[in-house]
Amino acid sequence: MNPSIDDRLASIIRSLTDIILPALPREAGLAQEQTHLAIGHLKIIRAQLDLAPAYEIEELVDARALAVALISKGAGGRATTAAMSVLSAALEQDSGDEHPRQTRIRINRATDELIRQLSDDGTPEFRVFAADTIVRLQSERALKDRKWFALMGFDSDIMKNG
Amino acid sequence: MSMTPILEMEPALRDLFAVRGARRAAPSYSARKTEEISSALRRFFATRMPGATPENVSRMGGGASKEQFVFTLNERSGVANRFVLRMDPLEAITETDRNREFQVLAAVQGVVPAPKPRWMDADGEFFGRPAAIMEFVGGVTKPTGAGVKVSGLGTWLGEPLRSKLRKPFLDNLVALHALDWRSLDLPRFSAPTADPKQAARWSLNYWRQLWREDALEPLPIMTHAEQWLIDNMPDCRELVLTHGDYRTGNYLFDEAAGTIEAMLDWELARIGDFHEDLGWVLMQVFGTFDNGMFRASDLYEREEFIEAYEAVTGRKVHRKTLHYYDVFSSWKCYVIVNGTGMSVARAQHNHQDILLTFLGATGAMFLADICRLLKQGVPA
Predict the structure, then answer these.
(1) What are phi and psi of B235, to 5 degrees?
(2) Which of A74, B29, B55, B57 could form an S-S bond across to A84 if both were Cys, CB 3.0 to 4.6 Å?
């Protein structure tokens, strides 16, 4: 049986906690701080590891949803129209073996460009729709991301209310 | 993101961009060793104060921005005092200028409690990177044993500290904003006086350019919020000297007496709109929630703080302008933490990369706040 990533991470955490940290001299404050952080990072990575592929796919799905929503109501002058064409092409492009992260970045880059261009010559109706849609969908995305990082311990709202 | 650089900003800040490109291509940065700093201090004081000997050099804990060391300087006269050396790593979570920080610290002496700046190595001749030395101030930035707090990223002070620190927290901000910046010796600072929107524009443009250079990937809500900030820039009715990072966590206090001993982290100070400081103070992420009640810096409820500031200063806090700086503050925080912080960590240019990537996880909280504020809309 090959050692799993989880087993390997667990043994690294144990080494840092039980062997390396106690061996650090008292005056090595930065080394102690960073060892604690390393342990914390690794524990959270260990908890996230199995869920990470699904999380990144969900990020991509959300990026696509925003792009599709914007295109569905997109209207404006030459700059907006051109940016919409680029975004449509990004959505239709065959991802092949591309990692979902790369696909998401590619789509978000085109979405970003549309957001910039629509402020120049998007129709007033499209601008209002885009503003509402971006805030609504990105708010939902931010909530998912806050939950994803809840174990970091910063966000007690999320820790308390889920 | 590669786009035409945004050039209209405070000239001294624009200068920072001229040199950071070359730094970005540099190899990894290593945390400075105590022995290296001891040696550099000896060489430094041999020229600045012959006969004085620095000793007991030790690294200060915490911080995600600058390398900091505390040491004792034994002067020839027999006097021994403690000082703090604050120096740039290769890159930090904020791109700032030690000269400006030094000047503003000198300018506020006697007005706002702040570490007294004593010496500069502006070009890093002795320390390898720009550095400033200031007098050591005792105190803590959070209560002893403050591991447990009710809520929020901010520091939980609780009682009786909260009651003791409220007034000096406000008074110091008021005193800072009351300074006549025109009469101060601030040669590295410029005032945005060309038109009423220049204060907002200079501030926004500085962070926009950082975002352009440092964003690791595009993010639609950041782009949308940036556009909103461009479209909604407020007029500045009164220019003041702002602190730029005014909040609990950025001052030293005497835990027993409940007194503020020094306001810290002046590197983001500028001449700008007082609403910019208020928006930062009132950020939810830096405050606490206690049974659903928000307290800015764990000291004041939002309206209570605004009213207190108005009452003491006689100024009118314009809600529309404040809303702008509420949005700007969260947007700027995301630039700091997830733009500059993460790109610096990826480049391995800081001594605290592991802390920077840990802090990067707070980004979603700032994005959620941007969404909340934009959804809430501009007050009437």
Answers:
(1) -75, 145
(2) A74
